[in-house]
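Class, study these two lines:
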Amino acid sequence: MSQRTDHTPSDAQAPTTSGTFASLDPRTGAVLAEYPVHDAEHVAAAVARARDAAIWWADLGFDGRKKWLQKWKSAIASDARSLAAVISAETGKPIDDAILEIMLAVEHLDWASKNAGKVLKRRKVPSGMVSANQESTLGYEPYGVVGVIGPWNYPIYTPMGSISYALAAGNAIVFKPSELTPGVAVWLADKWNSLVPNQPVLQVVTGLGATGGALVAAGVDKVAFTGSGPTARKVMEACAKTLTPLVAECGGKDAMLVAADADLDAAVDFAVFGGMGNAGQTCAGVERIFVADEVYDPFVRKLTEQASRLRTGGGTGDSYGPMTLDRQNEVVRGQVEDALDRGARAVLGGRESVRHPYIEPVILGDVPEDSTAMTEETFGPIVAVNRMRDLDDGVDKANRSSYGLGASIFSKDRARALAAAERLRTGMVSINSVLGFAGVPSLPFGGVGESGFGRIHGADGLREFSRPKAVTRQKFRAPLNLLTMERKGRDMKIAEWLLRTMHGRD
């Protein structure tokens, strides 16, 4: 089972196209490969093939699917260096970061395949006193075909959060990756096809925005989308035409709260990782930091010292790579300029830090709360560090954002940290770490507000890609025969007495 090295789709998978597009190395601009722009006809054909494959896949049952998903997991893990090379080439991120991303993705694939049966198998549920004559069961069935539209910043970890759980639940997948990272998706599909060559349970369609639009319109049973809020709204509009359900993850403006009793060294280490790792191109990283007045100055000093040691570049040993999406440079530049023009302090770097295709670390202090650096997703190696009185004040400031994906809290007071976590308007919170939730397969991942809706990962992620089905079986005739058009007065009197007795008292 040889693996193609050009990462181009097989002829059997690309019969109809509307030209090609190039995958580029963001570090050099060099062309890595050409990929077909799959048109609506091709996408519709892929969905039709997936529908047939979904029947075979669902009929395997949880144990049968687990066997194949475990084989796929092993194939990915054993050839991780090859996949990491594709990720690094297409995103510009260091190889080590690509390996870490693969590790996280494989952990989720492993958990989903092993736990789908436990979560989704039909089981008995209580019927209650009134329906005691009914045996009640609840089970979950796959949708059929799930269309996955993935991002470029984490081109395996993020889409696999949908793909792994949807596959484990019994669905077939048609995956449209970002036009910046098509090679990663094709690598994954090729690895699957090397194991199961005759069952297109996982297919990839490549192209630009129109290809993603064609996938949504092709009759898939559910869509899993990761991307910007404006694009998510367009996807929702398209889904609304056919009442196709959607799960959407739309980024974040994640806050870190640092209490006066926090371990500052640990908080700084995580702040640099969450804010600058992957060149800041992390939806659930760190963009806003609120620090207690008492420790603000030492925190900023330590943060500046550590961030100033980072090295940008595309080589081995560099801390992070370039902006994968070139126009993101201008977004970052605009936010830095807006903050500085409004009176923020450039603690480290500044306007001069934005230089295509790289952005040096930028730390902004005392940033106006209404500046774009505080209100809009940055997606670059910039953190804004402002003061807070205490955790309660920090929660209030963090919650002013329209986004609500993740957050982090640093405090030695467990009770106060947990209380603050409960008040944060987010889908996930890490205490004394950053992104701790991302590596825990049993926890759901998703946001509120501008960050989207629905969940991937964990039991909620498995249910996200399943339809619940309730079944009752009458075991014996009900003592009170109320479900008839000829009910007796005696039965109604007893029913009214039961109603008052069981539910009419405080």
User: Anything to note?
Assistant: The first helix runs from residue 40 to 59. The two ends are 69 Å apart (CA to CA).
